[in-house]
């Protein structure tokens, strides 16, 4: 964890998932950032939510539950928690009972920018820096997310060896793989687990996109072999 950063630092915002992976009022996506396990979802109105993946009742993973409009319902006893503040608002076994005010999901800062969902784990997270929106140029396309069994620093070193340079947003590296222009958004998921979200100016069905997929697999092999 970066202990030098302040809550206002761009380095505290982690690119956890492509925004398009989360459908309003529908699915729950599992995520990680700095070792923290996350449940990612959207309210019916589209507001992004990033919660600790643990129900405050009996610690069952929220990712096993379901989204019901603006609430996330736990799979075990069905307690429901509200988007935004994570407050428990319904206990189905006791429908007449007011849910205790101190029963609350742990909620982290979440914002959509540049086609990605970004999460800030700081308790006093400030508003997301505007430069996040510049992490990926307008009109670029998502290619894929690489899962790497390596630390984030090893991944940064490997990208630097491939000629990538750090971009405007922390975690955004610009370069090319097999001559295809690429931006790599690095997510420090766990000490030996890093996700790299690859974006490119190549269009989805182009030969360049196929080339990038292949180059990405080669990059993963190179990094994991060196690790
Ligand atoms: S463990 Fe989630 S409602 Fe009981």
Automatic annotation (TrEMBL):
<dbReference type="InterPro" id="IPR017941">
    <property type="entry name" value="Rieske_2Fe-2S"/>
</dbReference>
<dbReference type="GO" id="GO:0046872">
    <property type="term" value="F:metal ion binding"/>
</dbReference>
<dbReference type="Pfam" id="PF00355">
    <property type="entry name" value="Rieske"/>
</dbReference>
<keyword id="KW-0408">Iron</keyword>
<keyword id="KW-0560">Oxidoreductase</keyword>
<keyword id="KW-1133">Transmembrane helix</keyword>
<dbReference type="InterPro" id="IPR050584">
    <property type="entry name" value="Cholesterol_7-desaturase"/>
</dbReference>
<dbReference type="GO" id="GO:0051537">
    <property type="term" value="F:2 iron, 2 sulfur cluster binding"/>
</dbReference>
<keyword id="KW-0472">Membrane</keyword>
<keyword id="KW-0001">2Fe-2S</keyword>
<dbReference type="InterPro" id="IPR036922">
    <property type="entry name" value="Rieske_2Fe-2S_sf"/>
</dbReference>
<keyword id="KW-0812">Transmembrane</keyword>
<keyword id="KW-0411">Iron-sulfur</keyword>
<dbReference type="GO" id="GO:0016491">
    <property type="term" value="F:oxidoreductase activity"/>
</dbReference>
<protein>
    <submittedName>
        <fullName>(2Fe-2S)-binding protein</fullName>
    </submittedName>
</protein>
<dbReference type="GO" id="GO:0005737">
    <property type="term" value="C:cytoplasm"/>
</dbReference>
<feature type="domain" description="Rieske">
    <location>
        <begin position="13"/>
        <end position="119"/>
    </location>
</feature>
<dbReference type="GO" id="GO:0016020">
    <property type="term" value="C:membrane"/>
</dbReference>
<keyword id="KW-0479">Metal-binding</keyword>
């Amino acid at each position: 964890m970066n202990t030098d950063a302040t809550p206002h630092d761009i380095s505290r915002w982690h690119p956890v998932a492509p925004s398009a992976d989360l459908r309003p009022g529908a699915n729950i996506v599992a995520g990680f950032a700095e070792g923290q396990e996350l449940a990612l979802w959207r309210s019916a109105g589209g507001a992004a939510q990033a919660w600790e993946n643990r129900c405050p009742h009996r610690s069952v993973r929220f990712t096993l539950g379901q989204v019901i409009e603006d609430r996330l319902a736990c799979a075990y006893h069905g307690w429901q928690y509200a988007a935004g503040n994570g407050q428990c608002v319904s206990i189905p076994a006791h429908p007449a009972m007011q849910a205790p005010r101190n029963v609350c999901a742990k909620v982290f800062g979440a914002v959509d920018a540049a086609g990605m969902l970004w999460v800030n784990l700081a308790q006093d997270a400030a508003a997301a820096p505007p430069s996040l929106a510049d992490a990926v140029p307008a009109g670029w396309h998502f290619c894929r997310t690489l899962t790497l069994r390596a630390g984030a620093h090893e991944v940064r070193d490997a990208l630097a060896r491939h000629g990538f340079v750090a971009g405007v947003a922390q975690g955004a590296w610009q370069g090319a793989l097999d001559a295809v222009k690429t931006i790599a958004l690095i997510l420090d998921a766990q000490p030996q687990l890093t996700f790299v979200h690859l974006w490119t100016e190549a269009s989805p069905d182009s030969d360049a996109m196929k080339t990038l997929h292949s180059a990405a697999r080669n990059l993963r092999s190179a990094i994991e072999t060196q690790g």
